[in-house]
């Protein structure tokens, strides 16, 4: 099958990478160290989107390791995921929503990933016991929806995806299931060349409403191949919604972000969230944009949209909840609102806070 061949041909090693990038001896040693902690995988399809003549190419930054990843500041679990784990691989942070870590594999290991502690590494935190997960969900009828995440949920085998969806669709109080995947962006053939996967998704869709949540970060990722994979999912009656991460050097420009949101709306991948990049070790130094600057970029991008393209929220996934970043006041402070909250007393709470011009997160 085409996508399996593409996975076999991924660029994974320093030697593979040196076909495209030149390193001196010191750089080679430092990149090798980074790859020990944060593996690389780049499908040839995604590689074809990179302009290797441009060291500042935004697509390259998303896929190819940088020496900036050696910076040890930050945290590997910025949202407190370990504290919210109720069964191995299942998190229950918000009352109505559970989240399953279904695999530690992805088609591509994004350099800005907030789950660097997990992706491509040993899989202790991954959901293996579907029976235990089904039992927990069945006992908690306040849970109305499950996000099947990873890693990349569509990097599971078709058989395992079917088993997960069979477990979830059998639970009467679940209203819908979300599938989190970046394959429409990084490996669209996973969807377009595998009719059996579409059959699995289509059968589950007959039993329960499914949504697909994906992550396009730059307008050049919205290719005809990507659009075809989104279309194949939409044709099953599964809406596709997109979460973009605001990233320095990638989409930190109102025109670039605005163009991305326009293209996404045009292919039916509705803009859902723009996320503030988290202070993840090996990520924050390279990719975080300060909150005030982020707000101006997002507002500029929003001004280029109509209707659906404006319906997303600009949020930070904080340890205390999902906090919407509403805007700046004239006195140096900013206004925020709890969109989701771990402590339900915070739900909907609006608050203002002093924010320094270079501040990109808060404790
Ligand atoms: S696909 Fe998602 S989970 Fe996987 S590396 Fe990229 S951002 Fe991380």
TrEMBL record:
<keyword id="KW-0663">Pyridoxal phosphate</keyword>
<dbReference type="InterPro" id="IPR003739">
    <property type="entry name" value="Lys_aminomutase/Glu_NH3_mut"/>
</dbReference>
<dbReference type="InterPro" id="IPR058240">
    <property type="entry name" value="rSAM_sf"/>
</dbReference>
<keyword id="KW-0479">Metal-binding</keyword>
<protein>
    <submittedName>
        <fullName>KamA family radical SAM protein</fullName>
    </submittedName>
</protein>
<dbReference type="InterPro" id="IPR013785">
    <property type="entry name" value="Aldolase_TIM"/>
</dbReference>
<keyword id="KW-0949">S-adenosyl-L-methionine</keyword>
<dbReference type="InterPro" id="IPR007197">
    <property type="entry name" value="rSAM"/>
</dbReference>
<keyword id="KW-0004">4Fe-4S</keyword>
<keyword id="KW-0408">Iron</keyword>
<keyword id="KW-0411">Iron-sulfur</keyword>
<feature type="domain" description="Radical SAM core">
    <location>
        <begin position="92"/>
        <end position="311"/>
    </location>
</feature>
């Amino acid at each position: 099958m085409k996508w399996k061949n593409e996975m076999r041909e991924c660029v994974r090693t320093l030697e593979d990478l040196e076909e495209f990038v030149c390193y001196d001896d010191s750089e080679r040693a430092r990149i090798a160290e980074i790859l020990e902690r944060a593996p690389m995988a780049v499908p040839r399809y995604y590689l074809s989107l990179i302009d290797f003549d441009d060291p500042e190419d935004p697509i390259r930054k998303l896929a190819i390791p940088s020496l900036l990843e050696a910076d040890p500041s930050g945290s590997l679990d910025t949202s407190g995921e370990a504290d919210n784990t109720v069964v191995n691989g299942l998190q229950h942070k918000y009352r109505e929503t559970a989240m399953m870590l279904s695999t530690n594999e992805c088609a591509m290991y994004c350099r800005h990933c907030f789950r660097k502690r997990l992706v491509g590494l040993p899989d202790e935190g991954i959901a293996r016991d579907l029976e235990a997960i089904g039992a927990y969900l069945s006992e908690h009828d306040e849970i109305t929806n499950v996000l099947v995440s990873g890693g990349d949920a569509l990097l599971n085998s078709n058989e395992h995806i079917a088993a997960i969806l069979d477990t979830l669709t059998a639970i009467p109080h679940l209203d819908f299931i979300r599938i989190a995947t970046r394959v429409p962006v990084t490996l669209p053939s996973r969807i377009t060349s595998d009719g059996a996967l579409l059959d699995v998704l289509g059968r589950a869709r007959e039993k329960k409403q499914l949504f697909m949540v994906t992550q396009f970060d730059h307008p050049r990722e919205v290719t005809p191949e990507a659009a075809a994979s989104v279309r194949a999912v939409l044709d099953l009656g599964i809406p596709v919604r997109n979460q973009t991460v605001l990233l320095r050097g990638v989409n930190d420009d109102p025109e670039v972000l605005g163009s991305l949101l326009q293209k996404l709306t045009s292919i039916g991948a509705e803009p859902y969230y723009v996320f503030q990049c988290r202070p993840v070790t090996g990520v924050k130094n390279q990719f975080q944009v300060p909150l005030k600057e982020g707000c101006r970029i997002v507002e500029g991008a929003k001004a280029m949209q109509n209707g659906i393209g404006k319906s997303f929220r600009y949020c930070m996934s904080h340890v205390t909840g999902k906090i919407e970043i509403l805007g700046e006041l004239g006195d140096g402070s900013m206004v925020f609102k709890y969109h989701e909250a771990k402590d339900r007393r915070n739900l909907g709470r609006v608050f203002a806070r002093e924010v320094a011009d270079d501040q990109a997160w808060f404790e």
